[in-house]
Fold each of these.
Amino acid sequence: MRVDKFTSRLQMALAEAQSLALAKDHQYIEPVHLLYAMLTNDDGSVKPLLTKVGAQVGRLQADVKELLDAAPQVSGSSEGEVHVSQELARLFNVADKMANQRGDSYISTDVFLLALVSSGKDMTAKLLKAAGVSEKALQQAIDSIRGGESVNDPNAESKREALDKYAVDLTQLAEDGKLDPVIGRDEEVRRSVQILQRRRKNNPVLMSRALVKRRLSKGWPSALSPVKCPTV
């Protein structure tokens, strides 16, 4: 498997897994090493993804660490030499196939996790399922987080994580009923939505006081929900 087909996040996780296997005198890099590397990366997308499917992330991380500590050690091996195990190589191939089916140009951490849950044969996959991670739920969570986008950039995961970290999805809040209603600006919201929906000669510029702009920006997601969206 070519590492240059991995996203930067997956490459970083694999490098961390390699360091972990070397530090513990393990002969091969196994799925458990890679999963632990992804779970301990607070800036990655795996922990939020597992939380979204309702997994007990804290318990899972503890169980994975216990499995890692129980792995047999090999003494006398050449320093600095550790290779990907057959099981991990097989899972990379499964993930590659899944990525192609999704229209991705790179294998991402979420797709590798999906391959591990759906096709894993060792204890690592069993721990994920015991923590409440199912293939169907994980697939739905990936689709929801991606929003229909494919991974065609090795830095796609990092960019998506930055957006999730520093921005607020007002449309999702409106769909979940968590956005406070905008009072007294119904006509402005309705008119601005009609302008935004124009299919020709549409290059609008919103010019108003900052307070009005904030109210309109919060009013649009509610107005564009499936129930209230006006007919074009």
Note: Strands lie at 28-29, 83-84.
Amino acid sequence: MKQSIPKQIQKQKQEQKYGNTSPLEERQAVEDTECDSGKSATIFTLKQTKRRKRITLYLAGPLFSLAERMFNCVLANELRKRGYEVFVPQEFCADKTSADEIATQCKLYLSEADAVIINLDGADADSGTAFEAGMAQETKTTIGFRTDFRKSGDDSESGGNIVFRLLDSIVLYNGSKVSELVDSINTVLQAKYRA
């Protein structure tokens, strides 16, 4: 007859085997590739299990206009097609109403990502995006991208604020296909994580 192991002992054995893991380390994801459905593109059921295998990316960028949210959705889906798990604030904060709840969720997901993909478009980068980039810069792989061909800020090379030179990489893309932008981002990620 099989004896049941008390939950505390199971937890201790799991910690011995896998370390003290975070509840976000492996997820069950239900993906909806229809971004225009008005619903979250990915719903995560959080559970504590062994370490994830896929590289996780946090997508930092503006999300206040329809155009920004649509771009984020297309970008996230292109990254997912290449096998990455992508955290997008407009998805995991869709049901949050207070600024405190949103900030807490963003900080949690940002802390769990392996790398942060940072949208540097605009005359100046979005303030929340800049904050997330700063939080991630010391501990995460940080890859900025700029598709905005305008030169602004104090860095004539990248067209933005010079402080973003602290990022691991900046991808400048002036084409018209999100898939090509993602190819460039993927090349940087592959060099970092497959080497």
Note: Residues 66-81 form the longest helix (16 residues).
Amino acid sequence: MACTTLAAISAVLPEYRRPAGCTGRSSLGSILSFGLVVLALLTGGCGGGSFMELTSSAQFQQQVLQARKPVLVHFHKGGCTRCASLESAMGQVVNDYGGRVVFAKYLLKNVFWVITNPELQSKYGIDAYPTVLLFVNGRERKRWIMHDDIKSYRRALDEALHTPAKYIPAKQTSVEPVMHPAPPEPVVQPDFPDAVGQPTPPDDCNCN
């Protein structure tokens, strides 16, 4: 809503940017513009309709950690111009990957610098804003800290959507060793070849 208001006022501001003269319109326009910018930042910046707003650990558990699709979570803080700029720039990415990727955001530090969810802040070690985390199957896959290169987000989402299945080698069947028959035992020749089965007469035997 704040972004819609800003767009409407931006069209009117040229009228107030003319020389101030006696009316002081230039000063009024500057003050009005500054006030609306502050309002937009306090309400979370532009592009709020692109990301699903998360507000509790239970919601984070259900919408992020238990999601079947990849989830891109933008952790931001109130009054962060870079956070608002990143979320606005991600609008086209949301449109291109809608239905295949879940886009969510969590206001982890409000405009008064108070951490809104110490549990999440401690668990994921988030100390700088914006911090963007990509979750796949409930686990952190990639992290960006104060990073606004939209192409890197697209590459990571493409990889998450087209991750090849893990290679599982085919089960190896055991092969029984081939049993070769034992070689035959050598044949022992008898000491008396002339008369098989009969003892050989001694040389000094007088058999006549």
Note: The longest strand covers residues 102-109.
Amino acid sequence: MKRIVLTTLLSLFILCPLWAEDDDGCHYKLAHSPGYWGYNASITAVVSNGGKYVNNVDVGVFTKGDDAECRGVGQYDAASGLYFIMIYGSKKEAMEFHIWDRGAQTEVIVDQDYTYQVDGITGDVLSPYVIYMSGLVGDVNGDKEVTLADLCHLIKLLKDNTVSTNTAADINGDGEVNLKDVSALSDILLGKK
């Protein structure tokens, strides 16, 4: 009982900024306060996109189904290079990761299952759990389709100079987002690739 109360108080102290409605807060918000659930689990993780670790995303852990609710949130910790995610629940259940790309302002629902276990610990600082962002090449706006809307979104990102943090906009995979990516996406849309 003491462990649950201490962990909940610690979690409240750490996660309170994530509930606040400020510009720097996490995109995801917990469905209920941590005390509502009574139990928690933790994940120490890295987020990989195409073999590269990314630090410009927010991580949400959601229950599955039509009535999905956010049970855990995590933001990048620059000092450690990791994401620390507290997840709340009262029983073993299947969950999924949602990734919010801050640069692209799009969400990716990761095709990687996670099973919540009461008092579970997944990953640590020496061996973090890897959350793999999977995506469709060319899906810049994150709607799971490659359409003209993605090309428009990519051009807008270039025009607004907000591409440096957009992990999905590097269409040709050269590590840079520029007009070559516009050309590569145009080729995809025209069926040349």
Note: Residues 2-133 form a domain with the Immunoglobulin-like fold (CATH 2.60.40).
